[in-house]
Amino acid sequence: MLTKELEYPLPKELIAQTPTDQRDQSRLLVFNRLSQDLTHHHFHELPKLLPPNLSILRNDVSVLKARLAGKRPGGGSVECLLLRPTSQPETTWRCLLKPGNKTAKAGRFGLENEYSAEIIESLPSGEYVVRFQLPQDNDPASLAQRIGSLPLPPYVRRPADQADAERYQTVYANQGNRSAVAAPTAGLHFTPELLKKLQVEGHTIHDLTLSVGLGTFRPVETERIEDHPMHAEKYFLSPSTQAILCDSQKTKLAIGTTCVRAIEHYLSHEERKTTQPMESEAELFIRPPYHFLGVDHLLTNFHLPGSTLMCLVGAFLSPGKNNGVTKLKEIYNEAVEKKYRFFSYGDAMLIL
């Protein structure tokens, strides 16, 4: 498939810059794959739209305040975005730096009385390996949580404010799992009351953790989709969640593409354990044609043109076939006509 097939026209004014006033007041487009019916709702209607007795999988990762301000030795400003720890000591991380070349040439940056950082290596990916010295904190994540700011996506054209500290996290984010640089945005629509209603109506809810990385926002840059090098993201599954995934009698709803990546990567490997916690890296590139192993229904937001997530959702629209991306663009065109709000702070789509 050619990468240009992932493009679609999107007016800039439909890219959501702020969340809705209430989480569950966002809109919800529902597409039924069996009947091919497409209907329009609001998110608070979700319980009445779902089939009965679902096992609902959600990503409980918490977004790290990963954006750090700093200064080069000569006084120039630096913005450092923490990505993930390396296999080296806890104080060494892979980062993005702005400006990258100037900072790399300087070799160091920091913030007086807070931290100093040495650039160890410049990577072909445009990332940098950075070693931190931390007089007050145990690791860079603790530093970031104390003095950093939330890394809103690049299409949100404003700095993060205090309201984002709450709204760019799901209500079920586990603060012990601060390892994402982007939110699992399909989960941003849920309220505690809505989650309780789902459980009262007979659905069960199960957590997994996938550390959402910047690869989520990177467009496919190769001419052919198949040539795109897929990014890897760490995930964690408890024994109880593994047991649900391995139970073929359970009908499963995945909240977001991050859940799909973890579920499908886990089930695609023959050696699985249900009695011990399990950690791995999902590097699986889900694209048409693809047969899903453990996801029956999908709740997701509207995704960027030219992104790998369009491949995933297109594959889910037509499992095992090649026409899913075409169908997805037809649905997106209607969403544009109906003035749905797109991307992280935008509206949602339920595929049954």
How would you describe this structure in keywords?
QueA-like; Thrombin, subunit H; 2 domains; nine-stranded mixed beta sheet; six-stranded antiparallel beta sheet; 9 helices; 26% strand
Short description:
The protein is of the alpha/beta class and 352 residues long. It has helices spanning 46-49, 100-106, 140-147, 162-167, 192-200, 239-246, 257-267, 308-317, 324-337, and strands spanning 27-31, 38-42, 54-59, 62-63, 67-71, 77-85, 92-98, 108-111, 115-122, 128-133, 178-180, 204-210, 233-237, 251-255, 278-282, 297-301, 348-351. It has 2 domains: 3-63 and 164-351, QueA-like, CATH 3.40.1780.10; 67-147, Beta Barrel (Thrombin, subunit H), CATH 2.40.10.240.
Furnish the topology, listing elements before pairings.
Layout: E1 27-31, E2 38-42, H1 46-49, E3 54-59, E4 62-63, E5 67-71, E6 77-85, E7 92-98, H2 100-106, E8 108-111, E9 115-122, E10 128-133, H3 140-147, H4 162-167, E11 178-180, H5 192-200, E12 204-210, E13 233-237, H6 239-246, E14 251-255, H7 257-267, E15 278-282, E16 297-301, H8 308-317, H9 324-337, E17 348-351
Helix pairs in contact: 8-9
